[in-house]
Write a structure and sequence with these properties.
This protein is α+β, with helices and mostly antiparallel strands. It has helices at about 20-35, 80-95, 120-125, 140, 150-160, 175-185, 190-205, 240, 250-260, 270-275, 330-340, 360-365, and strands at about 1-5, 40-50, 50-60, 60-65, 70, 75, 210, 225, 230, 245-250, 285-290, 295-305, 305-315, 320-325, 355, 365-370, 375-385, 385-390, 395-400, 405-410, 415-420, 425-430, 430-439. Among the domains are: about 75-250 and about 265-285, 3-Layer(aba) Sandwich (Beta-lactamase); about 360-439, Lipocalin (Beta Barrel). The strands form 6 sheets. It has an 8-stranded antiparallel β-barrel with strand order 16-17-18-19-20-21-22-23. It has a 6-stranded antiparallel sheet with strand order 3-2-14-13-12-11, with helices on both faces. The longest helix has 17 residues, at about 20-35. Residues about 1-20 have low confidence and may be disordered.
Length: about 450
């Protein structure tokens, strides 16, 4: 048995040549309030034009336990957006003669495989081949505990390289964890102290700082995942993420940093050109995006339930920032809708509906599934009418029902297709497929 409960009417962002800015704001409000109402998004969105904020909106809760609503001053972890700050600091160190881009990793951490061939520049552009320590299968077992630099170096050294240095491009958090250690070595200061001196004080940022400085603000948000209800997320220890992902900030201050960086106020023109040397859309601590037919530059972030995005579109000098502490939708889809709204392109937001499926039907899909194609198991359960899956060593994730037998994890694009007798399930992600059988 099934029926569709429609909670949002399909609407389109129409092209209107003389559209008023107020109408754009109303459409952005409609988008965010609809996402909030349907438990798809909690967080803030800000848009700046020529460095001036022209739109800001916060929805959802900063702290659900005490019913504290998010405000425009709420502070979020920004995850891997931190890499832009770290890359900026490395390039400043190069400008000051403390480092060379061709300095080899072996000068600092010779135990890392291939360190004698890996340069600072390769690490900045994710061309080092260093396997990302956050992709290790047991990562979730130790990510919440404090870790020393020596312990992290050992863990990083244990993994086989993904490829030979300089022969490929693959995103790796280890590159930026190590770069933050190298910064501490050459400056003889903590990463936080370097960040404060080189970026925070010059830009007069009052709500930007490394994770762990909890006493600095009462405006910090908790993060949540939706598993039938919003549940508070466990947090990665700051010493684990370091310069790869442990900065906290607000949308307004992310805009100020992004404008200053791309405006040449933090590093020289030549250094910025290096930073924006893109290969496969990946630069030095920066990504190249293409939304609504226009290129923009920035980064994404995803850590402990905090999902973020910052990008500057230089042609029209527009900067967009999303900071979220609760994401139950595709962040890329939200970004696309914001760009479409600003540029008045034809677009429509998919219907935000919940396909109601009886608990008795979800019971038939629940169980533990294993595969001959991979050494992992998937445990499937349900709560409040939603199907939930959890792979070995991974956090559980919510699945949206597209039919009685097809379920999708919107954020990661994972699809589970159950056989009609529920004895097997096909896991699809991109072009990959794996068959799992119920134990």
């Amino acid at each position: 048995m099934k029926n569709y409960i429609l909670t949002l009417t399909l609407f389109s962002f129409l092209y209107l040549p003389g559209i008023a800015q107020q109408l754009k704001k109303e459409k952005l409000d409609t988008l965010l309030l609809s996402l909030e109402e349907n438990q798809k998004f909690m967080g803030s969105v800000s848009v700046a034009k020529n460095g001036k904020v022209i739109y800001s909106r916060a929805v959802g809760f900063q702290d659900i336990d005490i019913n504290k609503k998010a405000t425009l001053n709420t502070i979020y972890k920004v995850g891997s957006i931190s890499k832009m700050y770290t890359a900026t600091l490395v390039l400043r160190a190069v400008e000051e003669g403390k480092l060379l881009l061709d300095t080899k990793l072996a000068e600092f951490f010779p135990s890392i495989p291939n360190s004698e061939f890996i340069s600072i520049e390769q690490m900045m552009g994710h061309r080092s081949g260093i396997f990302s320590v956050t992709s290790q299968r047991n990562y979730s077992d130790w990510k919440e505990a404090e870790i020393t630099r020596a312990e992290m170096i050992t863990k990083t050294s244990e993994s086989k390289p993904a490829f030979e240095p300089g022969t490929n491009v693959k995103y790796s958090n280890s590159n930026y964890i190590l770069l933050s250690y190298i910064l501490e070595e050459v400056y003889n200061k903590t990463y936080g102290e370097i960040l404060e001196k080189e970026i925070i004080r010059p830009l007069k940022l009052k709500n930007t700082y490394p994770d762990g400085n909890y006493s600095l603000s009462q405006q910090e948000s908790h993060s949540y995942r939706f598993l039938g209800d919003w549940e508070k997320m466990p947090q990665t220890h700051p010493m684990v993420s370091m310069g790869a992902g442990f900065i906290k900030s607000t949308p307004t201050e992310l805009i100020r940093f992004q404008e200053a960086l791309l405006g040449g106020k933090l590093i020289r023109k030549e250094s910025l050109a290096k930073m924006m040397s893109f290969e496969n859309g990946m630069g030095y601590g920066m990504f190249e995006f293409n939304y609504s037919g226009r290129k923009s530059y920035g980064h994404t972030g995803d850590i402990d339930g905090f999902v973020s995005f910052v990008a500057h579109q230089p042609e029209d000098r527009i900067t967009i920032v999303i900071t979220s502490n609760g994401m139950n939708f595709s962040n890329s889809e939200i970004v696309q809708q914001i760009f479409n709204t600003l540029y008045e392109h034809n677009a429509s937001l998919p219907l935000l509906f919940k396909l109601e499926i009886e608990d008795s039907e979800l019971d038939k899909l629940s169980g533990t599934y294993s595969s001959a194609q991979a050494p992992i198991k998937i445990v499937v359960s349900h709560k409040n009418g939603y199907l939930i899956a959890q792979a070995s060593g991974q956090d559980p994730f919510l699945l949206h029902a597209e039919s009685q037998t097809v379920f999708k994890h919107l954020q990661a694009g994972i699809v589970l297709e159950f056989g009609h007798n529920s004895s097997e399930v096909i896991l699809k992600q991109g072009s990959k497929e794996m068959k799992f059988t119920r134990e």
